[in-house]
């Protein structure tokens, strides 16, 4: 029982780490960014290549994954995304899905269609005894990372001047611009941050998920689920949703293997019926 | 409007006339057109790449000719399992491109879809991978040079019994081939006195195996047999298997060769070490024929692309077409070709193979291998074998 909940929490943390960036780009900035997985893939490939070909350490590779995905995000924001902030959501969907397919083809071209090799550093391999349970070290590490990212985002968006400006700009761009906030630059930074977080999540997922060019489409449904069930535009919402999805998924597969894989979809539908705007609905869009 | 129609009819008749003349005059100097239906894009693009490399190697070794005829390969992409596309492509290849032979067919649904077309057009069709047992029964013009899932699973069950295992747990991916593996394993294992104490089918798109592995750990079976398609699933499963300390818990693990597919073995990494699998081809097969094959393959494709069982079957399929056409003196018409193909025997890089005259399915040696690190490379080292294994699903009909 204990280990099942632990595994569920760890899996949920992974979903949170990959998905929270989407909550920022999609929820805060109102951009339906289905290409989120592409940025996660950029981070994953960056970390994998740096570790396996260049022998860089795991910690540094994670940082590099964040930077690489943020940079790619910044470039794409400058070239494509900023033109469509006020466009119809359907246009945004088309653009971002286009980005997904282009990124899949590009990664196949440069890295081949097969899986990327990846080995966890020995310190994160195997199990460690914790409160009477044999828990996976890597899973424990994911939980620590998840909590750290949650805390950093809550502080950054809730307590800093930057966070206040972002919230103001999201609520009313014209008034925010009138008070001297450079909205476009702010959105540019925020979008890059969301992409960087995706990259970090992608790199952290290497120990559990396989990385190949079909990654962005394969896991899209999980990112969307976490953000929609949690409430787009918030940080605590996706966190709670990811934990619930993770626990429901792992426990379902453990106790009811015949039906387990479908329980998260049942759970998602039930949650959306009860709280259509997500577990933690964003203020102002009730 | 009427003139248009008349003109169209006339030109069609003329064209048809030329076509008839052409086919009457067709002789050994006509190039042999081979339609290759495979996956060249998407997550399974590696399959098409392996096919191409195997075919190219055979043609290079034989001066671009099979059965005395020059070869023209027309490649078509299905982008993965897509029976509708495969069917449409097969029609196009036959009607528009006038192919003499169809081949490729990496996914079973695609092969089934093409079977009906092969029957209608009487076009010999050589399956290069699709591993569902019943494919060769779908048309008298379909033969298979690859393997069936049941064919490689059955020897593994026999091997486990030989090792004194009485109690096994099965884990398979929830799709047709997974169910095939589960069925074949259960049948052979229980017939030999073993007991399947638990079984689970996992969804195809399963990111985290911790729940399934934990469940097995708590059930404490003597051994586990698993089948997943090659790709991301086996490494994900093996990672969790290692993390949970299943080996230390005394639970043995066995699988079919998809788990340690040569194409993915490097990326899978050390978690595959020591895993015992059953399959018809290993890149490390020690025969001289294979050593030459691997060397020539590397010379053409570089050391990065390892020939997998896809490349070997593609190479063998070309050899089979070659040998068959030698028998028919270059005649590739459906019935003659299939008659000559039945019972064909030759030496492949994987070992001796033959086409069963009754079922048109392959009969071959299935090897038991262990993943080891040799000269810094992960390879499947063969240490036991089962000779002349037929597809067990069709054994009763023989």
Automatic annotation (TrEMBL), chain A:
Main location: membrane
Record GO terms (molecular function): transmembrane transporter activity
Record's bilayer topology term: Multi-pass membrane protein
Protein family membership: Belongs to the binding-protein-dependent transport system permease family. LivHM subfamily.
CDD domains: TM_PBP1_LivH_like (cd06582)
InterPro entries, sorted: ABC_transp_permease, BCAA_transport_permease
Keyword line: Amino-acid transport, Cell membrane, Membrane, Transmembrane, Transmembrane helix, Transport
Organism the protein comes from: Variovorax paradoxus B4
Domain of life, per lineage: Bacteria
Lineage: Bacteria, Pseudomonadati, Pseudomonadota, Betaproteobacteria, Burkholderiales
Pfam family, one: BPD_transp_2
Segment forming the signal sequence: none
A GO CC term assigned to this protein in UniProt: plasma membrane
Transmembrane segments: 12-34, 54-81, 93-112, 138-157, 186-207, 219-247, 254-274
Protein name as it appears in the record: Putative high-affinity branched-chain amino acid ABC transporter, permease protein
One of the protein's GO biological processes: amino acid transport
Localization in the cell: Cell membrane
Automatic annotation (TrEMBL), chain B:
GO biological process: amino acid transport
Domain Leucine-binding protein: 31-370
InterPro entries, per the entry: BCAA_transport, Leu-bd, Leu_Ile_Val-bd, Peripla_BP_I
Gene3D superfamilies named in the record: 3.40.50.2300
Domain of life from the UniProt record: Bacteria
UniProt keyword list: Amino-acid transport, Signal, Transport
UniProt signal peptide: 1-27
Record family assignment: Belongs to the leucine-binding protein family.
Name of this protein: Putative high-affinity branched-chain amino acid ABC transporter, branched-chain amino acid-binding protein
The species this protein was found in: Variovorax paradoxus B4
């Amino acid at each position: 029982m204990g280990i099942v909940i632990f595994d569920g929490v760890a899996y949920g943390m992974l979903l949170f780490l990959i998905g929270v960036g989407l909550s920022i780009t999609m929820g805060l900035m109102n951009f339906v960014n289905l290409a989120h997985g592409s940025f996660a893939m950029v981070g994953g490939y960056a970390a994998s290549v740096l570790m396996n070909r260049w022998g860089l350490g795991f910690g540094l590779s994670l940082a590099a994954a964040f930077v690489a995905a943020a940079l790619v995000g910044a470039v794409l924001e400058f070239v494509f995304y900023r033109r469509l902030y006020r466009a119809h959501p359907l246009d945004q969907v088309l653009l971002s899905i286009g980005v997904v397919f282009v990124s899949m083809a590009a990664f196949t071209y440069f890295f081949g269609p097969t899986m990327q090799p990846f080995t966890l550093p020995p310190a994160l391999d195997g199990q460690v005894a914790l409160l009477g349970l044999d828990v996976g070290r890597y899973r424990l590490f994911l939980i620590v990372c998840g909590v750290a990212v949650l805390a950093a985002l809550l502080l950054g968006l809730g307590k800093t001047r930057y966070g206040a400006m972002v919230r103001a700009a999201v609520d009313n761009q014209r008034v925010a611009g009138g008070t001297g906030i450079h909205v476009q630059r702010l959105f540019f930074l925020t979008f890059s941050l969301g992409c960087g977080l995706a990259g970090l999540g992608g790199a952290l997922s290497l120990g559990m998920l396989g990385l190949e060019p079909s990654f962005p489409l394969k896991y899209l449904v999980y990112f969307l689920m976490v953000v929609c069930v949690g409430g787009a535009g918030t940080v605590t919402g996706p966190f709670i949703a990811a934990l619930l999805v993770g626990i429901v998924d792992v426990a379902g597969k453990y106790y009811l293997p015949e039906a387990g894989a479908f329980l998260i979809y049942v759970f998602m539908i039930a949650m959306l019926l009860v709280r259509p705007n997500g577990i933690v609905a964003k203020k102002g869009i009730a | 409007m009427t003139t248009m129609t008349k003109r169209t009819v006339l030109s069609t008749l003329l064209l048809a006339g030329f076509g008839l003349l052409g086919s009457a005059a067709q002789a050994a100097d006509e190039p042999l057109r081979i339609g290759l239906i495979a996956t060249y894009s998407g997550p399974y693009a590696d399959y098409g790449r392996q096919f191409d490399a195997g075919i190219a190697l055979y043609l290079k070794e034989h001066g671009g000719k099979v059965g005395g005829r020059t070869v023209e390969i027309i490649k078509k992409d299905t982008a993965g399992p897509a029976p509708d596309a495969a069917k449409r492509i097969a029609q196009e290849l036959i009607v528009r491109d006038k192919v003499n032979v169809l081949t490729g067919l990496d996914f079973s649904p695609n092969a089934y879809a093409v079977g009906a077309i092969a029957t209608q057009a009487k076009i010999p069709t050589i399956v290069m991978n699709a591993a569902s047992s019943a494919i060769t029964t779908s048309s008298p013009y379909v033969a298979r040079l690859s393997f069936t899932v049941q064919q490689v699973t059955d020897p593994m069950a026999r091997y486990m019994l030989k090792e004194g295992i009485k109690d096994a747990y099965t884990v398979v991916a929830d799709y047709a081939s997974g169910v095939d593996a589960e069925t074949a394993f259960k049948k052979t294992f229980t017939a030999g006195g073993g007991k399947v104490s638990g079984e689970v089918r996992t969804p195809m798109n399963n990111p985290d195996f911790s729940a399934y592995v934990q469940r097995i750990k708590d059930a404490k079976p003597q051994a586990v047999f698993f089948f997943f398609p090659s790709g991301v699933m086996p490494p994900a499963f093996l990672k969790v298997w290692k993390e949970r300390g299943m080996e230390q818990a005394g639970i043995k693990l066995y699988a079919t060769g998809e788990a340690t597919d040569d194409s993915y073995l490097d990326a899978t990494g050390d978690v595959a070490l020591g895993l015992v699998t059953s399959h018809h081809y290993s890149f490390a097969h020690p025969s001289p024929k294979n050593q030459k094959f691997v060397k020539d393959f590397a010379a053409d494709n570089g050391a990065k692309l390892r020939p997998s069982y896809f490349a070997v079957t593609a190479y063998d399929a070309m050899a089979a077409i070659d040998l068959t056409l030698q028998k028919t003196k270059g005649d590739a018409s459906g019935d003659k070709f299939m008659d000559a193909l039945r019972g064909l025997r030759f030496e492949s890089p994987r070992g001796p193979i033959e086409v069963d005259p009754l079922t048109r399915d392959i009969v071959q040696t299935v090897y038991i291998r262990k993943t080891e690190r040799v000269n810094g490379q992960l390879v499947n080292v063969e240490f036991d074998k089962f000779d002349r294994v037929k597809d067990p699903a069709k054994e009763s009909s023989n």
